[in-house]
Amino acid sequence: MASPAVNAFDPDHTTLTISPAELREMRDELQRFLMGYRFGLREIETKIAILREEFLLLHDYNPIEHVTSRVKSPDSLVEKVQRKGVEADFDSIRRAITDIAGVRITCSFTADAYRLFDLLTAQDDVHLVEVKDYIAQPKANGYKSLHAIVSVPVYLSTGRLDVPVEVQFRTIAMDFWASLEHKIYYKYDAQIPSELSESLRDAAHSAAELDARMERLHREIRGGGIGPVRSV
Which segments constitute the RelA/SpoT domain (predicted)? Predict the structure, then answer.
């Protein structure tokens, strides 16, 4: 006996009939699609963990305060697909949306953010797709962070899959500011009052000054540091 169909409705109130088998197939296809991003995320997390341990062993110094990561939820992915007007097929989504998998690396100092960026992207199996240096050139609202889209290979039973992962590098002060700005942004539904926007920019400037001051103190304490640093 065939399984009963499920009735759904589109925005124009046209009835769509979807069987349980079709729903399961859609679910399984989405899970397979996101699986590659989860594996790509693990590859980057492993590389970062190795760099962190090496710094501790060889330099007695940990440039990483903490690491957070995520793969976009199905709801979040659907919302972005609709907002960007991307065709609703997996090939189009894979080409158009590069931040489905994301890692945020919070560092002690600005120099550490650039150093880790250099070390990660210098690895043979990490391909740098795009970089946006919002540390050197902050956004108008004061936001600072180093954003990189990298591609990393994942080897599945079906063959090699090159997975894009967004990696963000920022300091503790940058992360604190961005977290607060994010909460305010959603509280005001993206319509932040001008006087509050100005206060946020002032706070971003103060955070940058604190970063610079603490980094100078750190260099005085450690002397020559642990290697050259450049900006992207």
Answer: 69-192
